[in-house]
Task: structure prediction
Amino acid sequence: EIVLTQSPGTLSLSPGERATLSCRASQSVTSNYLAWYQQKPGQAPRLLIYGASSGATGIPDRFSGSGSGTDFTLTISRLEPEDFAVYYCQQYGSSPYTFGQGTKLEIK
Amino acid sequence: EVQLVESGGGLVKPGGSLRLSCAASGFTFSSYNMNWVRQAPGKGLEWVSSITSGSIYMYYADSVRGRFTISRDDAQNSLFLQMNSLRAEDTALYYCARQFGGYLNWGQGTLVTVSP
Result:
C-alpha cells in the first residue's frame, strides 16, 4: 500500500500570499497518477489537479501541481478568500487508491 | 449536467447490513470507472472500493475486503455498495465518485451510522 504523507498539517497564510502544500509517497506513484482535491465544510471534495500537474475543468489557473515519483506539490499562487479549506492528495495508480491525511489551509 | 445521488444510508446495529445506491445521470455511465469514498465524522477521506467499466475488476480497501461488495447496473445507471458485518468504525458519510483523470464528480453522500 502506498502511504501518502501531507505537510504541513495546518498552513496559516493571508489572502494574496502564495501557498505550497506537499504530498510525499512511500513509494513511486504509478504513472504519476496523483490528484489534489479541495474540500470545504459540508461539501463534497472538488478535483483540482490530476496526473500530478493537469488542471481539472473549471479550476482557476492560480492552482498548479508539480512533482513526480514520490514528491508532489500543490501551489496556489495568490490566495483568494475562498481558497481556505482542507486539501487532500490521492494516488490512483495502484490499488488501494490511498488519500493523504489532508492539509488545512487557514486564514492568518 | 453530471449528477450523482447516493441513497440507502441509515442507522444500523453492529453486525448488520446496508446496501448503498448511487444514481448517475448526465454522462455515459457504462464508460467510466466508479468509486466509493467515505469520511468519518471530523476525519479525512478514505477510499473504500472501485469498479471498472464493464465490471471487469473490483478493488477494495483492506478495511472492508470480505465484508463489502461493489457492483453496478449499467442499464439502470446505478452503482451499489453492499455492506455486511458492519462495525462502529464503518460510521461515515459515503460518497460515490466518477473517475475521469482523478475523481471528477462526487455526490453529496449518504450517512451510515453503526451503533447499538
Q: What stands out?
A: Residues 62 and 77 of chain A are 5 Å apart (CA to CA). The radius of gyration of chain A is 13 Å.
